[in-house]
Specification:
Elements: H1 2-6, H2 11-30, H3 32-38, H4 47-58, H5 60-76
Helix pairs in contact: 2-4, 2-5
């Protein structure tokens, strides 16, 4: 358990969290009921979800390549 908590504060843990957050928000943008509820605000704290969804949909090729790169890094080097 201590190993899992220490990986949150490393750079690769932060990158993995960011990638998963962007991918999740982009997926939630495709679900109509959740899109209108969660991603309707474009400013403020809830605007972070909207902005992550926009990044995920517009840069989906770059996000996918980053996901694969981080997966290979975590499997092979970590």
């Amino acid at each position: 358990m201590c190993f899992l908590l220490s990986s949150v504060y490393s750079l690769d843990g932060i990158v993995v969290f960011g990638i998963l957050f962007i991918c999740t928000c982009a997926y939630l943008k495709k679900v109509p009921r959740l899109n209108s509820w969660l991603l309707s605000e474009k400013k403020g704290v809830w605007g972070v979800f909207y902005k992550a969804a926009v990044i995920g949909t517009r840069l989906h090729h770059a996000v996918a390549i980053t996901c694969l790169t981080m997966a290979l890094y975590l499997v092979s080097l970590k």
